[in-house]
Design a protein that fits this description.
The protein is of the alpha/beta class. The protein has 4 helices and 4 strands; from the N terminus they run E-H-E-H-E-H-E-H. Helix 3 links the parallel strand 3 and strand 4. Helix 1 packs across helix 4 and helix 2 packs parallel to helix 3.
């Protein structure tokens, strides 16, 4: 039997998390290859609709990474994210999708090792959940 390798979508803010991902790559830190990084200007630009669309199209997990609270390039963007993303995860739970398929975390530009750790942990957590049940649904 083949091992389940989840398809993960990671939204990373341009100013911190994306730079953290870059640092992890420059330092050649080992990471799961099944994580697709999408660069966004601010984590607050990740609308819940993007998460719902990704999950509805069969993405196994969505990771949203932003600047640490108080360090947002746009001052309060990550405060909005801190409210918005957990709400989106709870809404997914209401329709039968495990809210653990969505994770929010904070990674700065200097935290390449933390980026690696968060991504690796999230992939392992989603592996335990199994494939997204929406993969079976055909519209």
């Amino acid at each position: 039997m083949n091992e389940f390798n989840p398809n993960i979508l990671a939204f990373c803010c341009n100013w911190c998390s994306y730079a953290g991902a870059d640092l992890a790559g420059v330092n050649r830190l080992q990471m799961p290859p099944n994580v697709n990084v999408v660069r966004v200007m601010c984590s607050a630009s990740v609308k819940p609709e993007y998460i719902f669309k990704a999950v509805s199209q069969g993405i196994d997990g969505v990771l949203v990474l932003g600047c640490h609270i108080g360090d947002c390039h746009y001052l309060t963007g990550n405060h909005r994210t801190a409210k918005r993303i957990p709400l989106a995860a709870r809404l997914l739970g209401k329709v039968g999708i495990d809210p653990r398929r969505v994770r929010l975390d904070w990674v700065s530009a200097a935290e390449g090792e933390k980026f690696q750790q968060v991504v690796t942990e999230f992939v392992e957590d989603v592996k335990k959940l199994g494939p997204n049940p929406m993969k079976e649904v055909r519209f």
